[in-house]
Amino acid sequence: MTEASRSHLEALANAVTSRKANRTVIAIAGAPGSGKSTFAERLEAFLNTANSGSAAVLPMDGYHFDDGVLIARGLRARKGAPETFDVGGLLHTLGRLKRNEEDEIAVPVFDRGLEISRAGARLIPQSVRYLIVEGNYLLLGSAPWTALHPLYDVTVAVVVPEDVLRQRLTERWRGYGLPPEVVTAKVETNDLPNGRFVMERSLPAEFVVSE
Asked: Taking every annotated instance into account, which residue ranges of this chain make up the domain Phosphoribulokinase/uridine kinase (predicted)?
C-alpha cells in the first residue's frame, strides 16, 4: 500500500469512526476498473484491524439481473450498464441493513467467473457497525439511483484516468481467457462507456481517492 493510499484510508476511517450511529453506511463509487472494490476491501480490513468484526462490504454487483432477464430485454451485451441492475432490490436490502434490526442479513454476491449472482452468499451480522457498499453507480444523480442516497452516511469516489481504466479492464478480461476481439469489444463498447457515464453523471462525494 502506498503512503497516499494509507493516508486516504486513515482520513476516511477517522471520519467513519467519529460518527455515533448504530450503523454507518459508507458508499464507494467509481468506474469499472477504478479500484473501488480493492479500496473497499482495504477499508474493511483497516477498520477490522482496530475493531475486529466491525466492518463488512456489500458489493452492488450482487444485484445484477440474471442473464435470462437481460436476454429477454435485449440487454445481454450491455451487462454492467445502469439498467442491468436490480436497484429496487438493493434499496430494499440496504434499508434493512441500515436499520440494523435483525440478527443477520443474507446478501447476494456476484461470481465474475460464472457471470451470475449467488443468492445468500454472504451474511452480515448485527454486530457490524460500518457497512461499506461499493459499486459503479451508487452516486448517480438520477432515478432510480438517487433513492439510495438518503441511506448513505459517508460517500467516496474512486477516480483514475481513462487510460488506466482501459489497461486494467483489458487485463481483467484477458485473465478469463477470452479471445482478443471479445476483450476489445467488452472494454471499448461497454466498460469504458459505462465508466464515462459514471464520471460524468455522479454527484460529488465527500472523499475523492485514487487507486
From this structure: 25-168
The answer, yes or no, to whether residue 13 has pLDDT greater than 70, is yes
Look at residue 1 and tell me whether its pLDDT is greater than 60.
Answer: no
**What's the structural domain count of the chain?**
1
pLDDT band at 3 (very low <50, low <70, confident <90, very high): low
Residues 173, 79: contact at Cβ < 8 Å?
no
Q: Which three cell numbers stand for residue 188?
A: 471499448
- Please say if the pLDDT value at position 4 is more than 70: no
Q: What is the pTM of this model?
A: 0.92
Find the domain containing 97 and state its range.
Answer: 3-209
Is there a contact between 56 and 132 (Cβ–Cβ < 8 Å)?
yes
CA gap 155, 103 in Å, rounded: 26
